[in-house]
Amino acid sequence: METQTRKFEILRYRPEEQSEPEFRSYEVPCMPDWVVLDALNAIKDDIDPTLSHRWSCRMGVCGSCGMLVNGRPVLTCAAFVRDYEGTIRVEPLSNFPIVRDLVVELDDFVHKIQSVKPWIVRKLEKDVEQGEYRQSPAQLEEFKQFSMCINCALCYAACPVLASEPDFVGPAAIALGHRYNLDSRDEGNAERYDAMHGHNGVWSCSYANECSQVCPKHVDPAMAVNQAKLTGALQWTGILPKKSMT
Amino acid sequence: MSENASPTPVAPARPPSGFPLAHARYRNYVLFALTSVFMFVGGVGLLLGVRALGQGPEAWAQYLDALGHPAVLALSLAVFGFSVYFTLRWMWIGRKIMVGRVGPVPGPPIPMAGLGLGGIALCFATGIGVLLLLGGVL
Ligand code: SF4
Ligand code: FES
Q1: Which residues contact A94 (CB under 8 A, 6 or more apart)?
Q2: Fewer CB atoms < 10 Å away: N or C end of chain B?
Q3: pTM score over 0.80
């Protein structure tokens, strides 16, 4: 297969050398079936080994290769070079501090995800001998789409609310909290209430819907956020109970 | 992101590319946020009307005269346009709220339409009550 040389502008930031990030250009011979991640790997392997970027699975599963390509948050392992015209501009995810080049600081994102307790919370665990927790296909369907999240953080990079309110718990965390609240095996709704409905919770969302537009796994975080608003309001008024393990 | 301090030196977070006006998707969002200003202006206009109503027929006639001024007409049109835009965009997102759910799949879901209409009716009733109170009618 013949290669085609494409121009990439990549935002570089090396804290030991630069006070702030700046773009650097690269001419990269690309194969027709390359994704942007292939081009980044080619730059690192053959042109500039100082380039830093994250990736792992190369198949849209691990969620580690998220970056802005021409301003849009995408998984670079799923973004074909041939789908872009002219110069391709690659930047680290917006709304995240930059550690180095295309690598962003994810600690805060992880703390936010943890804050909604994205696991099954139960008053009492059954003994193994008592068998598994049964769930019907209809019950699974209630939350299935929200469990497809791969924690790629693209929704955080797209969210204009996070740009102005960095403490907003954010779309993926709310989608995950909502996923467990909807799970028929879970009893931890009350434990998630403060993180999801407190000062930095669902009510910070102002309907931009960008999270759902960019999600590569077709999760609809905006749906989760707004369903959670309604549920939270009904719980606040006492119309719906908060389920608690305590 | 918030200050969950990490010892790693970092460059500050950058806002979404093209935010707030370079992309249509963000322009729509900014426009949506801007509706609050016009709805506030509309609300103030209504309150002025209620005050005029409480001050007697002369003040009320002056208020009606002012409403006919071309600049006020243009502003009212803008308030109306922004209100319609707000409603349409809200409904576009609001349709995602099908039912209120908690934990194990509940009994009968709460129909969103009824809840929504009930909420809107309550808002209207409260609003009118407040206006009447402010206007000294009650
Ligand atoms: S909700 Fe979608 S965009 Fe957000 S972290 Fe999960 S997979 Fe990524
Ligand atoms: S490398 Fe795993 S999602 Fe892209």
Answers
A1: A68, A73, A157, A158, A163, B13, B14, B15, B16, B17, B19
A2: C
A3: yes
